[in-house]
Amino acid sequence: MGIRHIDVRLCNGCNICVEDCPLDVLRLDEATKKAYIAYLRDCQSCFLCQSECPQDAIRCVAVHERRMPKAW
Amino acid sequence: MPGEQRYEDIDVLVIGGGLAGVYAAIKAREAGADKVVQVDKGKVGKTGASCFAAGVMHTYFPEEDDLEDRVRRLTRAQGFLAQQDLMQDHMEQSWDITQEMAQFGVDFVRTAEGKLERRAGRGSYPIISFHGPQLMAAMARAAIRKGVKMIYRTMVTDILTQGGQVVGAVGFNTRSGDFCVFKTKTTVLATGNAWYKGLGPGHRDCTGDGYAAAFRAGAKLSGAENPDGPTNFFPARYDIGPGMNKFVGEGGIFLNSKSERFMEKYNPTLKERAGLRNLNYAFTLEAKQGNTPIFMDMTHLKPDAVRRLKEVLPLAMRMFESVGLVVGERFTQPVEWMPIAPLARPGLMVDRRFETSLPGLFCAGEAASPTAVPIGLASAATSGATAGKSAAEYARSAAAAPLDEEQVKRLRQETLQALNRGSGVEPDQVLLSVQETVVPYDVLLLRRADRMQRALDAIEDARDNLLPLLNAYDPHYLRMAHEARNLTLIAELHLRMSLARAESRSVLREDFPCEDNQDWVKWVVAQRDGGGMKLSTEDVPVDGYPLKPERTKNLHHMWQLAEKLGICRVEKGAVKWA
Ligand SMILES: Cc1cc2nc3c(=O)[nH]c(=O)nc-3n(C[C@H](O)[C@H](O)[C@H](O)COP(=O)(O)OP(=O)(O)OC[C@H]3O[C@@H](n4cnc5c(N)ncnc54)[C@H](O)[C@@H]3O)c2cc1C
Ligand code: SF4
Ligand code: SF4
Question: Where are the domains of chain B?
Fold first, then answer.
């Protein structure tokens, strides 16, 4: 699942997470200038946004709920 | 209605911005190419396998290592299908390129005296370490300093040709949906591997787009059936990784469901530190015996080992912490481990200058055939450097050819088609069908003709019945739609090429258990044939290489071991399970 939450009280709208997310999961709301999760299920759970956010506003969890066939 | 962006007068177009692509762009600039444009689906430096690589680099140390032995091991790891001249070039250059990367700002782990620190990793030679994504961040900055023009969030879908020569590429912006046309003198394809969108970070952005585009343009591909490792291994129940090389390097061990440390049986010398291919064999045989689940146990690691892991694998260790598997400086419990990073690598065939079978198209990194470029950062860098130099040279003498506007028009329609449909099949539906077909271990890791044929039938069904109805709600989903389309083609290439190789080499076959060095020191080559696919074989030119396999046909060494361990018998040329 990866990204679970962006705390809008902490987010300062710097846009780093939106620019850097490899799977382009995030967007910045034009009006509020806060980041939001636009394409949750495409998140690859890489934790890059969480580790780069200067405000520590992003919470990721390494629990996968994505459907993925098992090898055995 | 999406607009159109044209990028013209390009000397060298680099498609993909992992380490191979960034190196190609830098070296093309250094070799005098004026306008070098690098285009990526994401943002250069923040995507691809290179960004999420697990902190180790396999660099050759001229004063400490035996060059010949290292080249021999690389060649052996390719089951003698390697292009040995390229393995030699790569090994020799890897030391200098590592020093150069340090000058570009890559922060390698060093000893107190400031030397590159070498530690045990998987394989026989110690590895050096770096700090996760810092490597690509530094390399992307270096490329920008060198004057490389970057274009982000643009997915390349097809390659443009004119009279058999590559003259450009097309794609679309994944946010605006604008159709993009690139007109260039020469192109370097560095789009990485085809990971079937497995669970690991770095595995969901490289979907074989380069292989698919090159195939549609008529390039020769090889290697899908004989990869360096058909999958990698990750925690089964959590989205964590990568880092296996480091975990076993620090002392992590594998246990099966009976708590046996089974790698002692399959590789008594290296155990867990055996190469990826050996781990694949061992996991497969354990699964076949019903000894799953398999666990990685790191609960015994000392705090200083956990601290080191946190230094070089900052992202993976955060992931462990996020689910309580690491608390402070301890692993709390064994973690279930599984092959959930399936890949197929129908790479572009290249010569020693990394030119492909299409004039004007060069290729580097994992986009190239595994016989030319082994998986890894060091080889991504060395191959990228040479491809970039070669492309710049080519651009110096090439005249910019006009585009075939009819071709551009047709590709625009094809590229944007799913976006304009209104309603139809979800990209995820296609992706899941492909994954369900190729991920099961008795297709991916353990082959038999009847199972592969059934898998191929399922892929053809998806190709013929789902792809024409693909629907994209918006430009973001258009990316997902193209990825699903490309992975369907990759799966077809993967299965057809695997069916063609009638022997056990990198991957075990139950119906052809011998490694056949009489008839199969060959590459299986795939090429487009009208609307279909043509397969042929080419002899590996081993007679001109320093290392020559003995021309014998013997039971594959892993089947020999499996027989000895009582796991199976081989009768009448086929495997019978105990
Ligand atoms: C999880 C993981 C961990 C690894 N760990 C290590 C390690 O510790 N040490 C090591 O030596 N090797 C490691 N490897 C292998 C190594 O990372 C790769 O071999 C190497 O990074 C490949 O580099 P590349 O430039 O060829 O491809 P990549 O780095 O994958 O780059 C490909 C780029 O192409 C872009 N792209 C793809 N398709 C398109 C398209 N259609 N249009 C535009 N752009 C596109 C992608 O966005 C990406 O940026 C690891 C691999 C993985 C997946
Ligand atoms: S990086 Fe953090 S602060 Fe910046 S936009 Fe994203 S969530 Fe907000
Ligand atoms: S965890 Fe990775 S893929 Fe997911 S939103 Fe963050 S940066 Fe994007």
Answer: 233-339, 509-577
